[in-house]
Each structure stands twice: as C-alpha cells, then as structure tokens.
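Complex record, two chains
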Amino acid sequence: MKGNEAIAEAAIIAGCRHYFGYPITPQTEIAAYMAKRMPKIGGTFLQAESEIAAINMVYGVASAGKRVMTSSSSPGISLKSEGISYLAGADLPSLVVNCQRGGPGLGGIQPSQSDYFQATRGGGHGDYHMIVLAPASVQEMAQLTIRGFELADEYRMTSMILADGTIGQMMEPVSFDFEIQEAPEKPWATTGTKMQREHNIVNSLYLSPEVLEQKNIERYEKYAAICEKEALAEEYMLDDAEIVIAAFGIAARVAKNAVNAARAEGIKAGLIRPITLWPFPEKTFKKALGTAKQFISVELSMGQMIEDVKLATECRVPVSLCYRVGGMIPSPEQVFAAIKEAAGKAGE
Amino acid sequence: MDYQRITLLCGHYGSGKTNIAVNMALELRSRYERVAVADLDIVNPYFRTKDSAEDFTRAGIRLIVSDYANTNLDIPALPQDMYALVDDRELHCIVDVGGDDRGAYALGRLSPAIREENRYDMLLVVNRFRPLTPDADSVLEVMREIETAASLPFTGIVNNSNLGPETTPEDVLSSLPFAREISEKSGLPVVLTCAEERVAEALKGKIDNLFPMHLQKKPV
C-alpha cells in the first residue's frame, strides 16, 4: 500500500476516529482514505474550510480526550503552526502528519526535508516541542503513526510524523500486526461533569506570569525526561565507522546504498538514522565519536539537521553536508562520492 | 491479448495502471506502426507515463501527456492533443486513466466518440493486495463508480494482484479465485493476469492469459 494510506490505516487501528484535514499534494491520499473509511466505522472525516480550521478542530477533539489527527504538507503545516502552539500551551495530545514538499512559499510538490527546523524547533510561537518521528519505509509510516499516538497520550503533547513526498507516495507491503497501547485515562478531559466533579478547563491562557513561568518550567522538565527516555535511532555498520553518515527518512535509504558501496571498496563507512528527530538521538552520535573521523549529514534541505549533528558531536570532528533540494533527491553515487572525498581527507 | 483500437485502463489509484500501460504500448508497437500511449491522469501528479518518455521515443510510440506532468504545477491538466485518440482512427492507443471515479471523469469528455466508434476495451485493473479493494464486492463498488463517472461500461478485468518487489508466484496464484469472483459477479472476462517478468517465469503454463511485465522503476 501507499505510505500515506499506511498512516491512515494505522491511525484507525490506533483508535483514532476523528480526522480533520484539507487536501494538499503529496499527502492527499490520507484524507482520501479517511473519507472512505471513517463513515464505515462510525468515525468522523471532515474536510475543513482551511488548515487553520482543521487544526482547531483537532484541539476540540483532543480536549475531549479522544485520539485525533490531521495531516498536511509543508505550506499547510505553516498554517497549522498557530494551532499546534495552542495545543502545546494546553498540553493536549494529538498527531500531526507533515508529508513534506519543496519550499519555501508554495515551492513545489516534489519531496523535501526542508521543514526540519520547523518541526524540531516548534514552528509556532512560544517555548515548546513536538515529538518528531521520521519514518523511512511504508512499514514505519504505520508503526510510527501508532507510536506517535501512544507518545502523544503518554506525555500530553503533539507528535508529528515528519515524512516526505517520496515515502508518502511510494508503495511497499505493510503488516499491521501491532500491539496497541490503549489510550490512558484522561481525567483532565472535558467530557461533561455529570454534576459529579469540578469543571475541567482546557486552556493555554494564564493570567498570572508566575503561574505561566511555572507551567513552562514544568513542561521543560517533561521534555528533559523525554530526551532521556525516548530518543531512537537506527545504527548501520557503525561499530568501526570512520565516516559516519547522518540521514533520516528517504535520504537514509539512499545513504545506506552509498555505505554499502563504500564498504565494498574497504572504506569504513556507517550510518546513523535518527528515527526521533526530537528528541535528537545525541547519545548515538556521541558513541560514534569513538571511531568517527568525519560526519556527513545527507539531507533534502540546504543543511538543517547538520546543526543538530554538530551540537551532538560538539564539533569534535568535521561535519560536512551532502544535499539536494527543490524536490530533487541525492543519488547513492553522489553520497558515495562524498564518502570517498571524506575518506581521502581523513587519510591525509 | 487481442487489442481493440483503444484500450482504456481504469482502476483504483495505485492498482498498477501506468506500469501496465507502458508494457501494453510496447507490445502494441510490435504489431502496429502507429501507436500512442495517453496519460489522462488528473489525480496523481507523481507517477506518470512520462517517466518512460525516453523508452517511448526510442520505440517510436507517441506520448500524449499534459505538458505539466512531472512538474511542480499541481493542477488537473489534460493533454492538449488528447482528441487525437478519437479523431485519428488509424492510431492504436493505450489510455492510462486516472485513479478511481475522480480520474475517470476526464474520460467522460471522450466517451461519446468512443462509444460511437465502438472499437474499444475498457479494462478494470485490480490488485487484491490494495487496502480498499480486498474483496470482490469492494471492487464492484469501485467499478460502478468509475463506469458512472466515465459514461462507459467496462469490457474486461485485468488481474494485477501484487506486493511489489516482494511478490511471489504463490501470491499471484492466490489471487485467481478473487479475480474469478469479480468476473462472475460482473459478467466480464479476466482478460489478463499480470506478473513481473521474474514471477511470470515461474507461472508459465499455470495461468491463462499471463502478461509478463517489465517494471518501470526499480525499488530504492
């Protein structure tokens, strides 16, 4: 099935019965799939009048304690960013999918990874983070969607699936044999008091600066715990790697081919594929410093994740960039050439 | 298979229409001098017959496709020379119609002329392993929606059940009862069962109307 369809079906399996969205290439299959499936299973599919409306509908359902999602592509996510900030300010769990396309502005419809900053630094206003999950296969589109709902509920925050046009559109076999964690009790949800309890209020407005400061500090303590516990990365041929590629999503699949080509020529290359972009898997990078002589960040952007690679490795070895943008994708040969160049320098 | 002058390929998006269109066009060219493949997909701007433009040029096949296919322009544009399909009655054509009923609306513009000439096949491409068409009844639902949108009745079924590069001969064999059931319920013949060349090799002699396909793109 298609990557976008895998997200939609996985969301249904995770118990999501509310989808709000607005069509945009290359994620429209998610909305199309939900439009067909939701009415048949007693769920709600609603094509909102805009992305802004859709994200605020998400806020409503999340307040009522139900699993809810929206999806879009880059320009649409910019529109949703205000609402995502409100979700963060009200500590509401939700799932937002960004199937990225080339930017900035209207940009183009072909795949890109240039919303990395927007996803990992918040995108909207205020001090907040989202959990950002980066699938690299159609199977992971399904798996990380389910995990995204679980993490969102556990930490009361937004999980973002940061995919791209390639993974959204491509077709691979998928297994939906998952164990699902049921949504936890949500005593804070606005489900009606039935005259049995005090009113629950879901809100991101705090009149007292002292209280707002405290709220922010508590949220960042939660973020610190998430960084400690939830960072996730795939390691490939890393044990003795001197040239270490950092790449996520579709770029990591291209890079893996290049690593194989390098190994065939006796170059000790390896790959770190961050699966969580926030929290960034810093420990994996620090571990790789044991053998690494150079890191290469392979991205479909002008160099965004490279900043996190530099931070994680504290610039103790050189970090270079290998990229294509505008909807173009680097070839394994291009990445292999970058590895060879780095290996040459490292040998000098 | 015996080709009519026009072969229309319709089906659920992602059912494999484009790959089949490319393979059929190349086969058709071995029999006829003047062959065209037309891409009327107004739904999906990502996977297009235009990806095979070089192969077509080399084989002497005319490609009728929107100038905007494979670009960043995301509008449902039809090719300006699409009327050649019905105006030029010496041309043999394979037409890749867009996904679902939404895509088939584009065909409605040509269907009066196609009906009047009546030298066409309209084939429903099905893949049992696609999520929204796992059984015969769901396929029939899609089929009726497409016929209504296109204003043309189907004439046959193409069984293209596959799991991409992981497809085994057993997967294809397991789809035969599914195809038969669609055939019985719709009253239409299964005109082809498609399989990628490697899988088709193992299925030789086991399936009627087997259509070995050379896949357009290799998996990354």
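Note: Residues 136-150 of chain B form the longest helix (15 residues).
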